[in-house]
Write a structure and sequence with these properties.
Elements: E1 8-12, H1 17-29, E2 34-39, E3 59-63, H2 69-76, E4 81-84, H3 98-118, E5 123-129, H4 152-171, E6 175-180, E7 182-184, H5 193-202, E8 207-209, E9 216-221, H6 222-235, E10 240-244, E11 249-251, H7 252-263, E12 270-272, H8 299-312, H9 314-321
Parallel strand pairs: 1-2, 1-4, 2-3, 4-5, 5-6, 6-10, 7-9, 8-12
Antiparallel strand pairs: 9-11
Helix pairs in contact: 1-6, 2-3, 3-4, 5-7, 7-8
Length: 323
């Protein structure tokens, strides 16, 4: 395949937290890009979260199911590349729904891959998760490590990765994959980890951490994550997965302390459940360095910036908290 000339993107799941941040970032960074977002808009407030770009002539929002070929194929026929953020992981407020994850995360990925094959897309980018490796055994995971997911959402994403790899091997679809650390930042729905803890702290409620607080994760500001995804889309090597992370492990107890401090709340609000598996997750992002990417927002600064946004936009998240 020759030099990339991606002028029109299909972004499946582009009304989600990370997907919508990617859309805003690309429209801001590239005056020539056209973006079509396909999203089922099942998450409360999802459509309104794209109001700030709705009048941009380069942007189009289509409400539809990623599993519906009759919707996907006409959109895919008009674009140069596709990105799949679509997942059922955060569309509801309860426990993970296995059948829904299988349908959207796995079947939906196949529908998009088939469209990318049929219309000869220059790239197909699957947005996956660092949790596909499973809990840490020792050092942070490298891309060559075996996938051993333990949660339903991570298992569905690992299955989608396997199918994407098969389309690359069998049909030459130019697939790239990102496996990211835990995202946080402004506009994160309050049913997701960091935002839920910030909302609890601002409400003066207990900030609850599963287990004894020692389990660690790598937290990555959403601005850094979408910048990395863009790098992989345009500069990544087909057939390759890329870990995206800060490379710094933060314990659950440290996360709670940092949030409470940023919110000006007492540490006595921190609660440890002493229950749960206590799994840690982390990825080694060194493969991203040759693409010219490094995280810019360090964890303490990112939490302070995020808390500041939630303090100034309480109507936004309180409406969604009760939706």
């Amino acid at each position: 395949m020759g030099k990339l000339r991606i002028r029109h993107l299909l972004v499946a799941g582009g009304a989600g937290f990370v997907g919508s941040a990617f859309v805003r970032d690309r429209l801001r960074a590239d005056p020539e890009i056209l973006i079509t977002v396909l999203d089922a808009l099942r998450r409360p407030g999802a459509e309104a979260d794209l109001d700030d770009v709705r009048d941009d002539r380069r942007f189009k929002l289509v409400r539809g199911d990623v599993c519906d070929r009759a919707v996907v194929h006409p959109l895919a026929a008009k674009v140069d590349a596709s990105i799949n953020f679509a997942s059922e992981e955060f569309t509801g407020s309860g426990a993970a729904d296995g059948p829904a994850l299988a349908r959207t995360d796995i079947e939906g990925t196949v529908v998009l891959l088939e469209a990318a094959r049929k219309f000869q897309h220059q790239r197909f980018l699957l947005v996956s998760s660092g949790e596909v490796y499973g809990p840490l055994k020792s050092a942070a995971n490298r891309e060559e490590d075996r996938l051993a997911p333990k949660s339903l959402p991570a298992s569905a994403r690992a299955a989608a990765e396997t199918l994407a790899g098969a389309y690359q091997a069998s049909y030459g679809v130019p697939v790239v994959i990102t496996r990211a650390a835990t995202a946080y930042g402004p506009r994160q729905p309050v049913n997701q980890l960091v935002a839920s803890l910030i909302a609890s702290a601002l409400n003066g409620q207990a900030v609850v951490i599963e287990g004894n607080g020692s389990a660690t994760r790598d937290y990555l500001h959403v601005d850094d994550q979408v910048a990395a995804i863009a790098r992989v889309l345009w500069k990544g090597e087909p057939g390759t997965a890329y870990n995206i992370g800060d490379g710094v492990q933060i314990s659950g107890s440290e996360l709670a302390d940092t949030i409470l401090d940023a919110c000006g709340k007492p540490s006595s609000l921190k609660r440890l459940t002493r229950k749960g598996p206590g799994w840690s997750y982390g990825v080694d992002p060194r493969r991203m360095r040759p693409l010219g990417w490094d995280p810019l927002v360090r964890f303490p600064d990112g939490i302070r910036l995020t808390v500041d946004w939630y303090q100034k936009n309480q109507t936004w998240w309180r409406l969604r908290d009760v939706a």
